[in-house]
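Propose amino acids for all 319 sites.
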């Protein structure tokens, strides 16, 4: 396994070729690092599951370079989904759409819909563009962590999570820390109205503004399989406890204004919800590195990005 820092155009071409040859390439996106495989190659995609230790049948998001590629993967695309794609791609948003014949069961987990995203990170976009130039149609990529663990937001975290499971010809592209820090907003676009399945940086308010509806629903309880909505997810090794009093020996993650009691290790002090999202997974990881057994977390208040941060925290807690 090779780690390539700030890849040059030639190194990105090499990585695109490695994907076509069936190898895995972990790459930065603006949300979290993804573990990529050629979405048309069943054998390559199956390696994602073994490297992550992920149960078979969980659907994967297919990454594409532009809205132009949408119709390769999806059909009967509703107008509101096109509006959302035009407004927020490239960006931290995944659309669930009715699948085309290209989206095989090994991508969708046997469901009739497929998750699609155009990421905004320049390395991710360059990789996708090169990959499509040499015949690729999309890169399947879950977050590059072991199943159930915290998503990686740096290449070091990717190496720590899955480095020992990658093969010699797999690689990790390093593009520094992720700008957003938590996974994309997932929007189910298979019905008359959109539904948020996983909150993220594209917020409910932003979506409503673009498609002129009043109150879209969040957290569907339909039968769409989203491992991110399983109860226990995004968990570090430490015990995460929300809104508790921190005792000596504990770690603490809370907004800037909240003081650190004596003997408590402060893991982050974000100034706002955006910074909270950006630092969240790194802070949880650093608690594990410091072998802290219990991390007390005071979630951020309010709408917007705070909703997504609270979502991840509530899942880290029940883990
Ligand atoms: O920000 C992100 O979305 C990152 C980066 C790498 O793009 N990817 C990511 O992938 O978070 P993953 O696999 O860790 O989480 C994607 C979630 C999973 O819970 C999966 O079950 C759900 O999306 N998903 C994927 N395809 C789906 C589909 N067709 N229907 C319902 N849920 C789907
Ligand atoms: Mg994940």
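Proposal:
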């Amino acid at each position: 396994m090779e780690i390539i820092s700030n890849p040059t155009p030639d190194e990105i071409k090499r990585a695109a070729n490695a994907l076509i040859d069936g190898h895995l390439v972990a790459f930065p996106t603006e949300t979290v690092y993804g573990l990529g495989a050629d979405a048309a190659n069943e054998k390559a995609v199956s390696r994602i599951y073994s490297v992550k230790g992920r149960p078979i049948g969980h659907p994967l998001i297919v990454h594409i370079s532009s809205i132009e590629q949408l119709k390769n993967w999806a059909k009967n695309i509703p107008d509101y989904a096109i509006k959302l794609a035009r407004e927020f791609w490239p960006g931290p948003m995944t659309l669930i759409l009715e699948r085309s014949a290209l989206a095989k069961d090994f991508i969708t987990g046997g469901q009739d819909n497929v998750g699609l995203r155009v990421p905004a990170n320049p390395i991710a976009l360059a990789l996708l563009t090169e990959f499509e130039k040499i015949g690729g149609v999309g890169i399947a990529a879950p977050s590059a962590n072991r199943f159930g663990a915290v998503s990686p937001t740096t290449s070091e975290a990717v190496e720590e999570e899955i480095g020992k499971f990658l093969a010699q010809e797999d690689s990790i592209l390093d593009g520094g820390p992720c700008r957003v820090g938590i996974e994309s907003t997932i929007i189910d676009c298979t019905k008359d109205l959109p539904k948020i399945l996983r909150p993220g940086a594209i917020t409910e308010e932003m979506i409503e503004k673009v498609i002129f509806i009043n109150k879209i629903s969040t957290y569907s309880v339909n039968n769409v399989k989203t491992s991110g909505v399983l109860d226990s997810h995004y968990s570090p090794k430490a015990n995460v406890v929300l809104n508790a009093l921190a005792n000596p020996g504990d770690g603490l993650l809370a907004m800037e204004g909240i003081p650190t009691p004596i003997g408590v290790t402060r893991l982050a002090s974000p100034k706002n919800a955006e910074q909270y999202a950006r630092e969240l997974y790194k802070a949880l990881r650093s608690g594990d590195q410091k072998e802290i057994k219990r991390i007390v977390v005071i979630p951020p208040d309010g709408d917007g990005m705070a909703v997504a941060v609270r979502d991840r925290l509530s899942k880290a807690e029940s883990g």
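Residues 273-289 form the longest helix (17 residues). The chain has two domains: 2-218, 239-318.
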